[in-house]
Amino acid sequence: MNTLRVGWLYFRIGVLNELQYRVNFFVQLLQALIQVGTGLVMLSLVYSHTTELNGWQESELLTLLGVQILLGGFIHTFIQPNMELLMQDVQQGTLDYALTKPEDSQVLVSVRQVRIWQVVEVISGVILLFIGLSGVQGSIGPLDALAFVFALGIGAVLVYCFWLILTTGAFWVVRMEHVLELFEGIYQTGRWPVGVYPGWLRYSVTFLVPVAFAVTVPAEALTSRLHWPTLLLALGFAALLFAFTRWFWRFGLRHYSGASA
Amino acid sequence: MSAQTAPLTEEGRFRSLFDFYTTMVRTAIAAQLQYRVAQYFYMLGMIAEPVIYLVVWSTIARQHGGAVNGITAGQFAAYYIVWTLVRNMNIVFGAPFWEWRIREGRLAGDLLRPLNILHYDLAFFAGWKFVVVGLWIPIAIGLSAVFHPDLHPSALEIVVFIVAIWGAYFVRTMFQATIGMLNFWTTRGAAIFDLYMATEMLLSGRLVPLRLMPGWVQTLADFLPFKWTFGFPIESLVANMSTRSLLLGLGAQVMWTAIGYVLFRFAWRAAIKRFSAVGA
Fold it and tell me: Looking at this predicted complex, what is its ipTM?
């Protein structure tokens, strides 16, 4: 309960802070338009040379792109800013200010920042998703919609865990700023159904870096491809990864002696 | 004695500039070699992009009897693996970083140095290339083992390629620096830089070989600098270009470097007039 209260408080402060910079909304809007535009160009290029990619039609891939951008927007709003701040704190020795607070340290480092204007990306993802869905044959029942929301939630947890595990690495490898590029690069694999990748890469982006679970599984729910065992597997994997992340964070903290100590 | 206080002769100026470049290159190599793990993080993130394109296009090629527009899976592999080297060569002091340079007050100090700031950037990133290319070789071997590129360059093509990747480096440096001058007018250039990058992505051959683009896009690309930084260097090695078009390509790189340099000088003069040091 206390965790939620702290999270909510930081969220409110973050929003108030961001609301001071209103022009950023328009900058973000332009950036989202460019991102969506390039994605659409790539899709239309691919489908000007073929009618289906590994069994996925153009409108189905548009749905997938929508999910990828939507989840990306969520990551850029809530997860990435916190992880960047954490890396910076380790590098500059200011993490002690968070660690000496009485609240759980993992909660604190995960909720301290929010970049509210990135929500534009979430919205553009949702719009793409609906445009894609309008072209998909077959109707989507309430159960499918529910499975989608559920799978997306699991996806968000998976990405959070992966990011925190990576960032915890900063306790050992101090210079971590390139991790951002690493994640952004790998996250782009989510734009295509995981089935197109060769075996080794498919397993890497499923279990090593859970992009496939995070993006492909929700999109499968919307395009009547999802099997219930997959969803259960995703849930089990998320629970396991969350427990591991928690352990790894504490393990990292024990190794951390602070920059000033 | 007036002879001792006279400015350096032309020959002496070149020699000291040469000394400056070799020293900067050596310093950059020594500095960047320390951060090998960080470099690999960066590179692994970077190779995700071409691997995705490669997988998508070779899937389509296989679905359509082995080729898309005459390009086979093996040729796609060659294109995108060479892409990774060209992309590494294309890393320059990017336009968005000028904002950081101004905001952190670094520019004020840089302006006190005797040479134009562009020399420092050119020399530093040129040195970094040696480290990057060294670290890239194992990645290239790994990618080749997995994707089986179809690559048979002639000796001339290899020579042109080696020159062309440096040409690409110069062209991209000039244009990124010119666009970077926008930071003297606004602190919210991010959207414009994104637009520039997206244009480059589509018109340079970075996203797909330009041959897969509609005809009008290819014509448009002929009149812009972008394809000389990606498409041309890659194709000089992987496509069987005629000697004439190889040499013309190098000429085009020289021309775009010169145009970019003139644009930069022009923008720099206007920009520096607006600059007031942070903290002043």
Answer: 0.83
